[in-house]
């Protein structure tokens, strides 16, 4: 029984660590992913379709427990294009689309946070005014009794 558990543990270990050890697929995947991206862009395709094709290929080829993030895949494509300049000389002009303007993204995020804060401030003011109005109405209703509101009472 103990031997069966040992064999099972060894098989599970091999199953988990073998894909992690085989890293040459990452190099081949990023190289061919760069080739896909650059060829499609050079062929007249737009950035989105070229990027989707290359990223899908890199994700499928990458072994292991974790999938490749879009930022990591973009970095791999950029690295391959720069490393193999002669082969991908026509592709350098397309690399800027892989890494969007980070300053613009930060500015958009700041603007979105500012708008959310303004909306929250407006909501807080509305709630505050509503409470004040309820308190004022309550004070007024306590001040006037049914006798003071009776129009026939002189």
Could you explain the architecture of this structure?
The protein has 154 residues and is mostly helical. The chain folds into 2 domains: 2-100, no CATH class; 103-149. The protein is built from 6 helices and no strands. It has helices spanning 2-21, 24-42, 47-61, 70-83, 102-143, 146-149. The longest helix is centred in the last third of the chain and has 42 residues, at 102-143. The termini are far apart.
Keywords:
6 helices; mainly alpha; 2 domains; 154 residues; elongated
Task: Give the topology, please.
Blueprint: H1 2-21, H2 24-42, H3 47-61, H4 70-83, H5 102-143, H6 146-149
Helix pairs in contact: 2-3, 2-4
Structural class by helix and strand composition: mainly alpha
Radius of gyration, in angstroms, nearest whole number: 32 Å
| Unreliable segments of 5+ consecutive residues | 21-26
Order of helices and strands: HHHHHH
Question: What is the overall number of helices?
Answer: 6
Overall geometry: elongated
Question: How many domains make up the coordinates?
Answer: 2
Total count of strands: 0
Which sheet architecture does the biggest sheet show? none
State the distance separating the first and last CA atoms.
Answer: 103 Å
The portion of residues forming beta strands comes to under 5%
Mean of pLDDT: 78
Can you give the helix content as a percent range? over 70%
Kindly summarize this structure in a few lines.
This protein is mainly alpha-helical.
């Amino acid at each position: 029984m103990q031997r069966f558990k040992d064999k099972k543990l060894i098989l599970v270990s091999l199953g988990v660590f073998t894909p992690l050890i085989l890293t040459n697929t990452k190099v081949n995947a990023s190289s061919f992913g760069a080739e896909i991206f650059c060829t499609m862009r050079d062929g007249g395709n737009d950035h989105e379709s070229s990027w989707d094709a290359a990223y899908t290929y890199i994700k499928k080829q990458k072994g292991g427990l974790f999938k490749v993030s879009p930022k990591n895949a973009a970095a791999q494509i950029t690295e391959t294009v720069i490393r193999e300049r002669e082969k991908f000389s026509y592709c350098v002009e397309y690399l800027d689309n892989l890494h969007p303007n980070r300053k613009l993204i930060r500015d958009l995020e700041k603007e979105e946070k500012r708008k959310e804060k303004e909306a929250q401030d407006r909501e807080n003011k509305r709630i505050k005014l509503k409470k004040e109005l309820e308190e004022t109405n309550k004070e007024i209703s306590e001040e006037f009794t049914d006798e003071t509101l009776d129009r026939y009472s002189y």
